[in-house]
Amino acid sequence: MTSKTDEALGYEQARDELIEVVRRLETGGTTLEESLALWERGEELAKVCRRWLDGARARLDAALAGEDEQEKDGAAAQGTAADAGSE
Questions:
Q1: Residue 87: pLDDT above 60?
Q2: Is 47:21 a contact under the CB 8 Å cutoff?
Q3: Tell me, what's the pLDDT at 72?
Q4: Residue 14, phi then psi, degrees to nearest 5
Q5: Pair 18, 42: CB distance under 8 Å
Q6: Which residues fall within 8 angstroms of residue 3, CB to CB, at 6 or more apart?
Q7: In Å, how far from its chain's centre is CA 44?
Q8: How much is the pLDDT for 46?
Q9: Spatial separation of the C-alpha atoms in residues 53 and 72, rounded to whole Å
Q10: pLDDT digits over 10-58, tens only?
Q11: What number is the average pLDDT over the span 69-84?
Q12: DSSP line for the chain
């Protein structure tokens, strides 16, 4: 479970800390207990990053869907204007 502090982390902060955790794990030289604590912290940080990325994806999808709707509405309005002009 993520803590309130984790929820307040920005994407870049969580990513940078995750990079540091991975570096420490790859370097080695820690006890089993320290390694497990680092791994658990890394999992939490990865979840924070995933939430930020999922949120960014949702915002992009919504923006793109809005653009599609505007294009459809514009095309429909042009089609209606063209129909009215041909009468």
A1: no
A2: no
A3: 79
A4: -65, -40
A5: yes
A6: 44
A7: 15
A8: 98
A9: 28
A10: 999 999 999 999 999 999 999 999 999 999 999 999 999 999 999 999 9
A11: 71
A12: ---HHHHH--HHHHHHHHHHHHHHHHH--S-HHHHHHHHHHHHHHHHHHHHHHHHHHHHHHHHHHHHHHHHHHHHHHHHHHHHHHT-
Q: Which tokens belong to 84?
A: 């009215």
* Residue matched to tokens 């930020």: 52
Q: Which amino acid is at 64?
A: L
pTM: 0.71
How far apart, in Å, are the Cα atoms of 19 and each of 35, 49, 55, 72, 85?
Answer: 15, 12, 21, 44, 62
At 5, the amino acid letter reads: T
